[in-house]
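RETRY 2/3 - previous attempt timed out on the joint model. Re-submitting the same 480-residue input unchanged.
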Amino acid sequence: MRDPVLLVEGLRAGYGKHEVLRGVSLRVGRGEKVVVMGPSGSGKSTLLKCIVRLVEPTAGRIMLDGDEVTSDHVDLRKVRAKTGFVFQQYNLFPHMTVLRNLTLPLEVVKKVPRKEVERRAMEILREFGLEEFAHRYPLQLSGGQQQRVAIARALLMDPVLLLLDEPTSALDPELRLEVLEMLIEVAKQGRSMLIVTHEIDFAKAAADRIVLMDDGVIVEEGEPAELLNNPKNERARRFLVEIEAGVKNLNASAQS
Amino acid sequence: MSDPLSFVLSIIPDLVGGLWVTLQISLSSFALGMALAVALLPLRVFAPPPFSAFARGYVELFRGTPLLVQLLLIYFGLPSLGIKLDAYSACVLAIGLNSAAYQCEILRSAVKGIPEIQFLAAESLGFSAAQTYRYVVLPQALRVAVPALVNELVTLIKESALASVIGVVELTRRGEYLVAYTFRALEVYAAVALIYLSVCALASQAAKHLEAKFRIPGYERVSA
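RETRY 2/3 succeeded.
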């Protein structure tokens, strides 16, 4: 088997005395799509942030595309430029147009000439049906449109791994769908993704593997069909029942 | 003796000459203040203790002492250290150093309004701290701070009258000269006050346009 794009071993992290990650080990192969699920407070988001050291791990080792992220000598900016991170909301810089939001990081961080960046940015906007927003400002767009632009910005950096932290949970039900469709499309292009989400539909359609977390550890992992239909762990089963119920409520409220 | 109105009209051209100097002093010291504030701000907000303490000390020193004392110190005090400035430069320096402290605090409160997630987003994209400041923090802070900054400029236009104390012939000093040889203090100082008032009113009016021009598009929808 080829080198994984991401290898996490015995990762621990916390805020103050409160330990949020209590020894997490995880592997994401090249081109693999891994969904992380778990109740709130289980450490999913912290795990994602540790991977690019937006949160400092207290123990453990992280290898990303051949770089040891947890090393003291690592070039963090290079590591971060290699990943694309999409947050729950307010990712975009509100004082720049959509196009500038896309071009600035490449221009500033990767030193690609402006003309070239603009060409590539327009290409990617067109690919995802976002070109009409190129000269608009983020706050003039809906939450779903903003999130799609944020994903496009992450893609433009051509990341070896796309990290998405609950990209749809801050959105109204009717806006989630357009973001999900885009994510499924991105997944089909074969890019490695690590995504924290409770979107069962995405997991079924695009994930190679689901990782279930609870209380700072991974309690179960497996292929979507197998894990979703027949979880072995009791806590995992209870959690899945809860989000299934949540999805039904959400759909009901979207229809009403 | 001419009637008050025609007297005031007759001295206006002379006063406008002084107004020109007043505007030069206030605009130059505002620019100096802004340049210093932009340099101080990251120390004040993001830097580790020794630097942030320096920036805080600076702000407290200049806000905690009278501008007039700062001006006298620079004009009459610095020569004992071998630094001799002409009255005009001393004035721009004193008001500029003083305004830097206020502008720094204006920008600081604007920075506080920027959501934390934007810093994370910039960091996650691989921006250095300096790039985050230059491309993300500063442009937003300046836009948000436009009304407060124009207000600061208006304050400087009025405070620049202190320059008259060390002999710079700006608007107020011109007035003093006119009083000295016409003895019509009421009309002269009323005319001087009126000129300050109209310039400041103009500036406040301009602020509204600037505010609209620099507002972050879509911002009003979110805050509404």
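The longest helix of chain B spans residues 4-45. Closing ticket.
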